[in-house]
Amino acid sequence: MVIASSSVTQLVRMKTFYFLLAFAAIIVVLMSLNPPTTPAGVLSTIKRISFGTMDIFAWLFAIVSTALLIPKDIEDRTLYTILSKPVRRIEYLIGKLLGVLFVIAVSLAVMYGICALALFSRESLYIAEELGAMQAGAQYSTEEVEAQIALIQQQGLRVELGIAVLASFLKAAVVASVTIFLSTFASSSLFSIIISVLIFIIGHAHTMATSFWLYQTDNNLLVELLLKCVKIFIPNYQLYSFSHGIIQGEAVAYPLVWQMTGLTGVYLVVFIFLSLLVFIDKEF
Amino acid sequence: MSNCAVEVKNMTKVFSRGLKKSDYVVAVDNLSFEIGAGEVYGLIGPNGSGKSTTMKVALGLMAPTTGSVKVFGFDSGDIRARNEIGFLPENPYFYKHLTGAETLKFYGKLCGFSGGELKDRISELLELVELEGAAKRRLGGYSKGMLQRIGLAQALIQRPRLVILDEPTAGVDPLGSRQIRDLILKLKEDGITVFLCSHLLEQVQEVCDRVGIIFEGRMRREGPLAELIQINEQTSMTFAGAKPHFLAKVRDLIEAESEVTIVDEGHPKTTLERLFISLSQSEQEEEEK
């Protein structure tokens, strides 16, 4: 916990939270736009852009900050003074990971708060406007008014949106654990960042690789080997896109959420274990 | 040696330089020495002689290829050994975003300290290294000497029985260097074992009880400092208040002996460092007046 809280302080003092200001600015710009579409359409756009930005922030921050923290400690020899104290190497690794995850969690929570505030204000405004317009004309039935409001509410602020934020967090946690594994043997932060981004991209082609593996019979040995490697060693980031439906107003499949949380736990354990295998005998 | 702080036994460290088995370098070759509890031991040698590798093995940052290194009876890779060690690396770069007090708090917590005990220990150490005034300043604004002193404070945070110092005065001005030396002597007074590496031989001479001279990974000479540096076949005498006629008598006496010759004669000299420090101190006293 000491290393985790120190990593949080380090990231905070590196002014990483400045990103939140940029996010707030994006929301302000979005709120000032009035595209020629239905109220539900506007709310849907705000959600898609906001949650997309949150997702990008989460995985990008997970890669960059994790790739920087350990090599920086080695380069500055801070690691010597830490590991010469009665600190186990696994404590150091988990501490660094937890620090990064804590900052991501706080940032996502703040961004979600800003987004929720924006959505709620827009949604309330649209409902009031719709009600006013429909009642003024008096040509719509109560059912029609309720259906119109339900349509706006479906694209407005819903508790279920929190699950979409959780999906971004879970994905970022896996990305961070992969990056921490890479940085235990990488010679530079740049290498860890590039390889992590590559793995992230390949991880989004998991389904394609799997279907290739299962249904294509004329693969040559090299292609098959490559596909098997992708399947076994690279996390399936595509699975986390279940949040897209939630953002679009679909119902949440809670068993899937629990399944994804469990799978994230498995990924974390596997990558921390692999990191430890490399790090435990690493010489500095 | 019965009461051993560090016991290096036939330690060899080999680094491979490529994928081929034949491509390797022997950094430390069958090194053996012991450091008694409460001793100040200096390991000296040129760059690449294996000093830092030996220290890293003692700290558990590296494992020996063959042989063993024990710290107070524990294998150097054992976490219990690290409870007993404080380490100051050469040119330490701690977290620049932390203040001096926060740095000590961080390392104290790593060693399991908390609450009032940690707070008291931090104040005690800041006073010891004379950094009370800079406790709330971030390390980014510290001078090299101040960094070295906060580094020494973090090394002492858990009251270790052994302190390992790698080039403790590298890049520090003479006054800062003197402060660090005084701190090493204070540690010795408190019964703490000090194991240091330095290029500054004069400083090693001033603080060490025993010295090992390492070259190309092998121990060339080792033993108590006084024994190592004395020239057994020569004797020196220093007189105070000797008048010319007295010195003439001594010379006559020596010339009468056929086997004895005067090798050197003159006034004892101070060091440039001592001269610099005494001048700085008198300047400071003048300013205070």
Give me a quick take on this structure.
Chain A is mainly alpha-helical and 284 residues long. Chain A has twelve helices and no strands.
Structure description:
The complex is a heterodimer of chains A (284) and B (289). Chain A has 284 residues and is mainly alpha-helical. Helices cover 79% and strands 0% of the residues of chain A. In chain A, helix 1 (2-13) crosses helix 5 (89-137), helix 3 (39-75) runs antiparallel to helix 8 (189-203) and helix 7 crosses helix 8. The longest helix of chain A has 49 residues, at 89-137. Chain A is globular and about 80 Å long. Chain B is an alpha/beta fold and 289 residues long. Chain B folds into three domains: 1-84 and 160-230, 3-Layer(aba) Sandwich (Rossmann fold), CATH 3.40.50.300; 94-159, no CATH class; 236-266, no CATH class. Chain B has helices spanning 51-59, 79-82, 100-110, 115-128, 144-156, 174-189, 201-207, 225-229, 244-256, 272-288, and strands spanning 4-16, 24-36, 40-44, 66-71, 74-75, 85-88, 162-166, 193-197, 210-215, 218-224. In chain B, strands 6-7-8-3-9-10 form a six-stranded mixed beta sheet, with helices on both faces. A four-stranded antiparallel beta sheet of chain B has the order 2-1-4-5. The radius of gyration of chain B is 23 Å and the shape is globular. The relative contact order of chain B is 0.14. The model of chain B has no long low-confidence stretch (mean pLDDT 86).
